Amino acid sequence: MAPSHALRCCKRALNWVPVLFINLVVAWSYYAYVVELCVFSYLVIFHIFLAMFIWSYWKTIWSKPASPSTAVSKCSLFLMKKKKLKQNVFRLVQFNESIYILQPQTAIRYCDFCQVIKPDRCHHCSSCEKCVLKMDHHCPWVNNCVGFSNYKFFILFLAYATLYCAVICATVVQYFIKFWTKQLPDTHAKFHILFLFFVAALFFISIVSLYSYHMWLVGKNRTTIEAFRGPVFANGPDKNGFSLGFKRNIADVFGEEAKYWIFPVFSRSVYQCYTMAKKLLVLSHLGLNVVLPRLLKVYSNILN
Ligand SMILES: [Zn+2]
Ligand SMILES: [Zn+2]
């Protein structure tokens, strides 16, 4: 085995350490709560939040990051050469009740590693070694890229992790007080209870702040990358360049139907995703950029 290959394997194995750590903490919290504390009346709610937490965590870890398609890339370049693309773009925009505007872009972004044209909001991840659509960040705690394919799952993972910790804190606090007033029987269970409260409170504080930050980003239709460095359009950088208004920004991540919002299932309509992905690809190949709302007017002027 070549040394570089062995090193790569080692690095890949090490990347799973934070995930293993989270799993061990959750497994211990389960043991401490269900076996050591074991208060029957709390067990139902505890298991509901635990199940939702594990479900969304699992989906965040195992959702393959969506990458720009080389096939579509080639197809669009072909169309571009045929000079028919402009008409197609206008048609796409017309049928997608679009609220985007086109603006000239100085250069088409291209990834030398993957050899694909990068659509807007797509970035190359050096850990995953591929381009990721609507990349938010690479998260070591799930050993995966958080982006177009799993952003909703990631948000739900944070939400249910917060609720899981909140349930533990709220139900254990009475025993925690009893520990300090020496009312608990002198068994090793009391140390589990003590640490259970401390660990849950610590995780609650850190996760709830991360969750609030991401909900704020969702409301603005902004990724973490864009929050640090606003996307550059023809008229300069604009952090709000992709915002569609609060309601549509929420639907852009969670889907149109509210009944699916709390479940870690893919709930954006296939049509919406297909047209959006296609539109992003087509527009960036054209050398144009996809921006924002002032805009139907512009299209109706062009189309009429
Ligand atoms: Zn790439
Ligand atoms: Zn990544």
TrEMBL record:
Which reactions appear under catalytic activity for this entry?
L-cysteinyl-[protein] + hexadecanoyl-CoA = S-hexadecanoyl-L-cysteinyl-[protein] + CoA
Report the family membership. Belongs to the DHHC palmitoyltransferase family.
Q: Where in the cell is it found?
A: Membrane
**Domain free text:** The DHHC domain is required for palmitoyltransferase activity.
- Protein name per UniProt: Palmitoyltransferase
Which InterPro entries does the protein's record reference?
A: Palmitoyltrfase_DHHC, PFA4/ZDH16/20/ERF2-like
Query: PANTHER family from the xrefs?
Result: PALMITOYLTRANSFERASE ZDHHC20, ZINC FINGER DHHC DOMAIN CONTAINING PROTEIN
Palmitoyltransferase DHHC domain: residues covered: 108-228
Q: How does it sit in the membrane?
A: Multi-pass membrane protein
Highest classification ranks of the organism: Eukaryota, Metazoa, Chordata, Craniata, Vertebrata
- Record keywords, A-Z: Acyltransferase, Membrane, Transferase, Transmembrane, Transmembrane helix
**EC number per UniProt:** 2.3.1.225
Enzyme class at the top of the EC tree: transferase
Q: Which GO terms describe its cellular component?
A: endoplasmic reticulum; Golgi apparatus; membrane
Gene Ontology terms for molecular function? protein-cysteine S-palmitoyltransferase activity
Q: Which positions, given as ranges, span the membrane? A: 12-33, 39-58, 153-177, 189-213
The Gene Ontology biological process annotation of the record reads:
protein targeting to membrane; synaptic vesicle maturation
Tell me the domain of life: Eukaryota
